[in-house]
Amino acid sequence: GGANLILPYSIRGTAEWEGEYGAGMQFGFGLRGNPQVGFNLLGRKQNEDKIVEFYTVTLVSDFNSGSTIYKPSFHGGMAFEGGDNGLYKMDFSLQVDKNGLGFITIDENDPVAFPEQFKPEKLTGSFAIRASDESVALFSNIEVLPNTPFWPVE
């Protein structure tokens, strides 16, 4: 990441990955360096579907042990045609309007709205792209237009 996202904004690019746990993007990093929301790009070997999985992150403290962890909560997503021999590639486009309502478009599929848990304050600030521990990922052709959509967003 590197852009300071201010509503509205657009991000588009291409993601390629190998491995069941894939890659992803995270948004709204707090002062402690933790993301507030994100999505995972997963490859499922069982049915060879590509999966986009939305999640929010909350800080959970165990006062008895004195430890704190970041816990994801999952809020739906979408599945579409699988990859070739465990290799996955997709074009994506994110659009977020000035009210924080957003959607993601994968390849030529219909746009899918972000879950209601993706509040405007969680979608602003820094963002990051990442590969999961047991995957290899390549993001290319990333274009970020902070505070400007690629096309009209109402």
In short:
By secondary structure, this protein is mostly beta strands.
Description of the molecule:
By secondary structure, the chain is mainly β. The protein has one domain: Jelly Rolls (Sandwich). It is 0% helix and 54% strand. The protein is built from no helices and ten strands. The strands form two sheets. Strands 8-7-6-1-10 form a five-stranded antiparallel β-sheet, with no helix packed on it. The mean pLDDT is 83.
What brief labels describe this structure?
154 residues; mainly beta; Jelly Rolls; 5-stranded antiparallel sheet; globular
Topology summary:
Layout: E1 9-18, E2 23-27, E3 37-44, E4 49-62, E5 67-80, E6 87-96, E7 102-106, E8 112-113, E9 127-131, E10 136-145
Antiparallel strand pairs: 1-6, 1-10, 2-3, 2-9, 3-4, 4-5, 6-7, 7-8
What would you report as the Rg, rounded to the nearest angstrom?
16 Å
CATH topology: Jelly Rolls
Roughly how much helix do the residues carry, as a percent range?
under 10%
- Tally of structural domains: 1
Q: What is the CATH first-level class name?
A: Mainly Beta
Widest beta sheet: strand line-up: 8-7-6-1-10
Helix count equals 0
Q: In CATH terms, what is the architecture?
A: Sandwich
Tell me about the biggest sheet?
Answer: 5 strands, antiparallel
Low-confidence stretches: none
- Class per helix and strand makeup: mainly beta
Return the string of H and E elements: EEEEEEEEEE
Number-wise, the strands total: 10
Q: What is the residue-mean pLDDT, rounded to a whole number?
A: 83
The coarse silhouette is globular
